[in-house]
Design a protein that fits this description.
elongated, Rossmann fold, 5% strand, 60% helix, five-stranded parallel beta sheet, single chain
Length: 608
């Protein structure tokens, strides 16, 4: 399993973006500066911000010092005014940095107080707007306005009375907070004072302030605009740089919603006012995805961070050169890697082209990690249940689930033994490599991209020699499998049909079908027979399936203990059943002695 959070190292060979951002911030003549790191959700923006922060902190020296401040816009949404929260975070960081310089510390403390005054000014402005317009916009005033309107229409309710009492308390608290400190008289004066104190603190510290803003695109439109407006306050201050990571389309959508416009140009130009230098993350191709998989597998194998960083450099160089035997070069560069990694690297080589191009994935690193984690969870469940299943087959099925979710249930139905031949036929057609859609696709599969289907079918391993039962069990949250005979192989299904109706333990027909079963098939048949018996309410007379289950247990010792466990759950065992199992080795006397009924009517229906 891999963490869903940002990586500690460059797993996608994007060092050039990090170096470009750091180089821009390092040029004093460009300050103040705002840099945008644009990319889709999950494309690795947060990882790049972490790498940029680490690079700047390593570069700090007496002549070129950086104070890096991180601001997560999403963290404050709904809890604070985003504008004031950003100013708070920055002023607190400056105060902490200035603690050893008494003069600068005093100015930094003044800056902190200035933020509090601006926050008060904002609250007072909203309350004044409520009062002046008669149109309350949120908080306690909004609640009172709604109550008043309802009271005029139909009279106050008990709930309205409670709302008035609560809102009155909130208004009193707001007023009390505003009176604790003299209310600012002029917003321009307060903002000008803040900017002046801010520049004085930076000059006193002798540092370049770099503010890293993340998760802006996760915010609601109002919070997104508030954060951008707060950034505007700092854009023209000396020794200041902002690095803002966001999904550009999401931010532009927030601008449209906030201002009530459908104009793409308006949203585009609005964002351009805040971002001076946009850096767009390149899409991850096959080489980058292979690098990601190599490093993820190395991480899972316990390879230390230093060695992984070395591998990342080697892989990045190979990606730039192209057409090199990547696996062999990597293994030669790090001969002490764990022995299981060469096979994992082979798997990465097979998966990378698919993950780079498959719809619904398209090289997105977070989606790839989540897909691989989902496969790992299913693998862990298989190991816990003792199911023998190929890890690559689990990944192959999970990939289809991600890329064609609407058709996944149909795939599982085709994996069932009764339809597996149809799936294998499609595999053989895809293996020919002919262009165009595959013939005889299941209903609904026409909407799946033909290139994806052909590549997916060609991805090893084949379903031809696969045991479908474990895969279906692992995907039972998608397809209900309880008591479903469709899971049985052809031989197992034939055995179940015969044994479920057998009225005698000794039967040549039963012996014939049991002889064809593997241990796995025998386990599946016993499970189905027990499921059938559990649905029987009246055990006074012979129950269909019991004779066949006893015969199966004679041929497969492991199934004897399974059957004994089920029978031991019965409240009592009727005489006819006691006579059948009396001499069976798995029905030891302690197991059934206290269960045997002394007469008819003693037996209750088994628990379902």
């Amino acid at each position: 399993m891999w963490s869903d959070n940002e990586c500690q190292s460059d797993y996608l060979s994007r060092g050039e973006v990090v170096r470009a951002a750091v180089a821009l911030v390092s040029r004093r003549e460009l300050l103040p500066l705002s840099v945008g790191i644009f990319g889709d959700w999950g494309s690795g923006k947060s990882t790049l911000l972490r790498l940029i922060k680490a690079d700047l902190e390593q570069r700090s020296d007496k002549d070129d010092r950086y104070l890096v401040v991180e601001f997560d816009a999403w963290l404050y949404q709904g809890f604070d005014d985003t504008r004031a929260a950003l100013m708070d975070v920055i002023s607190d960081a400056l105060l902490a940095a200035a603690k050893e310089n008494q003069t600068t510390a005093a100015k930094a403390l003044s800056l902190v107080k200035q933020v509090d005054r601006i926050r008060l000014l904002g609250k007072a402005g909203r309350m004044a707007l409520d009062y002046a317009t008669g149109l309350p916009v949120g908080t306690a005033f909004g609640a009172l306005w709604d109550v008043g309107r309802r009271a005029m229409e139909s009279g106050p309710s008990p709930e309205d009375v409670a709302t008035v009492e609560e809102a009155a308390g909130e208004i009193a608290s707001e007023a009390k907070n505003l009176l604790r400190e003299r209310l600012p008289q002029s917003a321009p004066r307060e903002i000008a004072a803040f900017r002046r104190h801010f520049n004085e603190v930076l000059d006193g510290l002798g540092v370049t302030l770099v503010v890293i803003v993340d998760n802006l695109d996760r915010c609601l439109p109002e919070s997104t605009i508030e954060a951008l407006e707060a950034i505007r306050l700092f854009l023209f201050m000396n020794r200041t740089a902002f690095i803002i990571a966001a999904d550009q389309a999401m931010v532009q959508s927030a601008v449209k919603k906030h201002y009530g416009t459908d104009s793409a140009n308006h949203a585009h130009f609005y964002l351009d006012k805040f971002i001076q230098v946009p850096l767009r993350l390149p899409y991850a191709g096959t080489g980058e995805v292979r690098t990601l998989l190599y490093l993820l597998f190395a991480e899972a194998a316990g390879v230390d961070e230093t060695t992984r960083a070395t591998l990342a450099v080697v892989l990045g160089k190979l990606n730039a050169e192209g057409n090199r035997p990547v696996r062999d070069v990597v293994l030669a560069a790090s001969p002490a890697l764990p022995t299981e990694l060469p096979a994992k690297f082979d798997l990465a080589d097979r998966l990378a082209p698919m993950l780079a191009s498959a719809p619904g994935v398209q090289g997105n690193p977070r989606i790839i990690k989540r897909l691989m984690n989902a496969a790992q969870i299913r693998r862990a469940v298989a190991a816990d249940r003792g199911l023998a299943v190929d890890e690559e087959l689990i990944i192959k099925v999970t990939l289809f689930e991600r890329c064609a979710p609407d058709s996944f249930a149909t795939l599982l139905e085709m994996i069932a033994p009764t339809k597996l031949d149809d799936l294998v036929k499609l595999e053989s057609v895809a293996a020919k490599g002919e262009s165009g859609p595959l013939p005889n696709l299941p209903k609904g599969w026409e909407a799946i991209a033909p290139t994806f289907l052909s590549a997916w079918f060609a991805l090893p391993p084949s379903f031809k020699d696969a045991n479908p039962a474990p895969i279906l069990y692992l995907c039972r949250e998608v397809l209900a499998l309880s008591g479903s005979v469709m899971l049985l192989t052809g031989a197992a299904r034939e055995a179940f049909d015969v044994l479920a109706e057998a009225d005698r333990v000794q039967s040549p027909v039963s012996d014939e079908v049991i002889a064809k079963l593997s241990p796995h098939d025998a386990s599946a048949v016993m499970s189905e027979l027990i499921g059938k018996m559990r649905r029987t309410a009246d055990w006074k007379r012979r129950v269909p399936g019991v004779a066949g289950a006893i015969r199966l247990a004679r041929s497969f010792d492991a199934q004897g203990s399974v059957l004994a466990s089920f029978l031991s759950s019965l409240p009592s065992i009727p005489p006819w059943l006691a006579a059948l199992i009396d001499k069976e080795p798995w029905a030891a006397p302690p197991l059934i002695a206290d269960k045997v009924a002394k007469g008819p009517g003693r037996l209750k229906p088994p628990s379902l």
